Amino acid sequence: SATPGSVLKIVVNSMRSKGPDDAAAAAAAAKGGEEGADRMNVMLAYLKSYEGMGMAKFECTSGCSCEPKPAVDALHSLKQSTIYLVRLLVSQAQRCEISVTLLHNTSSSSGQHKFKVSGIMMNEYTGSDITEKLHEEQWLSQLQATAHGGAERAAGNKSSSSSSSMEASKDEAKQDIASGSAQEPAMDKPS
Question: CA 133, CA 140: separation in Å to the nearest integer?
Answer without folding.
Answer: 14
